[in-house]
């Protein structure tokens, strides 16, 4: 397989059958611009076709996994139907292409994770997180509904009560708490993260391939049943981009202040 077109992703083969994918925009804490957003959607189709890859591991370069969406991208998207439609398709493809990839995908969450990067981390079949890593589904902070991936998988992972709490408050969760409530597979000390993720990957890579893949396919029918919920959440998120709250949310994040959303005013 030729992965040269993925200029914001780095590829290594740490062991037989294992492909390590590193989100590689460290100067921006691996935040997703439009190019990276598209690459996070497309890469899983190539992983699925790659005869040398039996398991994929995805992590972030430097001290972040992926620190949300590039705010320039967010500002360009607001009130722009063409841009919103394009981003909406890519956001859906991130979820669907991970679900439909036959091969196991492991996320090694090494640092802060928000936005599309968090979607990749949470949609992975097995998620290993550093105990001190923190993440949030930050849509509410931005002033848009929790689309992307959360509605389709968080209630399955950690139950409705916790999903509603964290998605409606956008509170941060650390690795230990995420493991406690079942939102991730394992939490380990930061210095053990990659060793553990690669250990699990090597174990899967040497296991019975079709049995593992068909187990993934069967379990993912729980997620497929929630597709109408996901489509609704994604549509509502994108509808929010035509309102004024998202403009205030973006400005507040850039200015590092609390937002005053227009929808809270009489």
List the helices and strands and how they pair.
Elements: E1 9-15, E2 18-23, H1 34-49, E3 55-60, E4 64-67, H2 71-77, H3 81-100, E5 105-109, E6 112-114, H4 115-123, E7 126-130, E8 134-135, H5 139-142, H6 150-158, H7 160-169, E9 173-174, H8 175-180, E10 186-188, H9 193-205, H10 209-219, H11 221-224, H12 227-240, H13 245-255
Helix pairs in contact: 1-3, 3-4, 3-12, 6-7
List keywords for this structure.
single chain, 266 residues, alpha/beta, 2-enoyl-CoA Hydratase, Chain A, domain 1, six-stranded mixed β-sheet, 13 helices
The profile of the biggest β sheet is: 6 strands, mixed
The strand line-up of the biggest sheet is: 1-2-3-5-7-10
Q: CATH homologous superfamily?
A: 2-enoyl-CoA Hydratase, Chain A, domain 1
Flag low-confidence runs.
none
Sum up the overall morphology in one term: globular
CATH class: Alpha Beta
Number of strands: 10
Element-level helix/strand string: EEHEEHHEEHEEHHHEHEHHHHH
Q: What is the fold-level CATH name, i.e. the topology?
A: 2-enoyl-CoA Hydratase, Chain A, domain 1
Q: Assign the structural class, choosing from mainly alpha, mainly beta, alpha/beta, alpha+beta, or little secondary structure.
A: alpha/beta
Radius of gyration: 18 Å
Q: In angstroms, what separates the terminal alpha carbons? A: 57 Å
**Integer average pLDDT:** 96
Helicity range: 40-55%
Give the percentage of residues in beta strands: 15-25%
CATH architecture: Alpha-Beta Complex
**In DSSP terms, counting alpha (H) and pi (I) runs of 4 or more, how many helices?**
13
Overall number of domains: 1
